[in-house]
Amino acid sequence: MSASLSAPAMRATGVWRHTAPVLLGLGRLVLGLAIAAAVWEGAVLAFGIRPEYLPRLSAILSTIAATPEAYAAGFLRTLLETLLGFAAGVLVGVLNGVLFLRAPVLRDMLFPIFVVSQTIPVIAFGALVVLWFGNTLLAKAVIAFYLTFFPVTVNTLLGLQSVDPRQVALLRSFGANGRQILFRLLLPTALPQIFVALRLGSSLSLVGAIVGEWFGDTTGLGVILLQAMYTEQVTVMWAAILCAALLGTGFYALVSLAERWLVFWGAEQ
Amino acid sequence: MRGVLGGVLLILLWEGMARGFALPSYTLPAVSEILGSIWIQRASLISGGATTLLEAVVGYGLGTTIGIGLAVLITVLPWSRTALLPVVMAVNSVPVAAYSPLVLLWFGIGVSSKIVMVTLAVGFTVFLSALAGFDRVDRRSVDLLRSFGAGQAAVLWRLRLPAALPLIAAGMRVATVRSLIVAIVTEMLGANSGLGWIIYQAVVQIDFVQVWSAIFVASAISLAFFGLIGWIERRVIFWR
């Protein structure tokens, strides 16, 4: 119900209530990163860790600075695959959830198959997916999609099923049609649950994209990782790992931020 | 019942599509063809599956132990939380798969690198759920036990652990599937045995019936592992 009250007035007060902690958290994050960087650099120097194991942070950063275009291109490519797969996974997952709610027969028939499909090491499909869709961006997005859609389906269904039937009856008695009930009551109620899956899916889709790139591609963070492994360039590998960490954390933070904005009445934790 | 029906329908549809449209095996081999190939290749599939299962189970054991141990440590020694948690979170912010090439360089292409990777993946999953479980305990319940003279260990054993077990178990169940996936992915990058290695070789030889056979065996193993842990969980956590 509360979602339908999202009047501009409520948004305006919501802006401050939600921006302030975000800024504070950002400040703490920067401080934490600075300390971590100092500890890393110091530990490598102090313990004399050999660069084959852990290179100094400054060495890794200067590797990135030496050829920033390669890392930027890989970053963007992987980002694009992740986002495409994630978006498709969320869309299909939510649709599946709604469909399963409306057609329990379908749910009983398909849900066990979905569960089994997730115990399959999906990544083993990577080679097949690349064969089916060609060595394209689409193939990697499909793998990311495959990893994302299942948690979204499960949590959408859980969220939709948690709606109080009396609320549905109330809305119906006011003459609301099926679509209005879905958009005004069911989906807003399920939103906190859905976002739990979205946060999980954000990291899963990145894994899917990176692993997908291992089955043949020319750009992407996964490709940089693999090539660095073959040429035994540990610094380059760490540079790619840092980029992946940045991408993963950034995407996760973005999803969490969207959650704060959309689920302003309090997220499920 | 409907689930079984759905599964049967899926297999029939698959078989019908592959036979009906005479799809080439690199697009989609028929289920019967895959099962036949599994039977022919059973010796190599069993030994590959055994290697993968060994890596997954050893890594799973280590990861679970380390994950729960670390969570207990942080719970018992609150000051270690501020020191350890940021490090763990930073390491965890990288998708686990991205560590595979690095671990392969460090530990070689033998069994040990896969065990390390599985330990890493399982450890994080179990640690995060165990920590969430230990933190879930009501502060007042801890104080109550304390006032009756219970020590740290008693609070942990009698209060926190029972409260955290359902969450730990949920994490452990998710981790079963993850352990096999990570073992297979790492094998695909570099190994000399295992299901991932079989898949990789089959891809190189463009033998897609073989790929499917290995996938079938892998899913059967991971389903069995998942089922086993689920069964143990229902036995141990009877109060749920």
From TrEMBL, chain A:
It is found in: Cell membrane. The keyword Oxidoreductase does not apply. The chain crosses the membrane at residues 20-45, 57-76, 82-101, 113-133, 139-160, 181-200, 206-228, 235-255. SUPFAM superfamilies: MetI-like (SSF161098). Keywords: Cell membrane, Membrane, Transmembrane, Transmembrane helix, Transport. Residues 75-259 form the ABC transmembrane type-1 domain. GO terms for cellular component: plasma membrane. GO terms for biological process: transmembrane transport. Its main location: membrane. The keyword Transport applies. Pfam families: BPD_transp_1 (PF00528). It is a multi-pass membrane protein. Gene3D superfamilies: MetI-like. Belongs to the binding-protein-dependent transport system permease family. This is NitT/TauT family transport system permease protein. It comes from Muricoccus pecuniae. The lineage of its organism: Bacteria, Pseudomonadati, Pseudomonadota, Alphaproteobacteria, Acetobacterales.
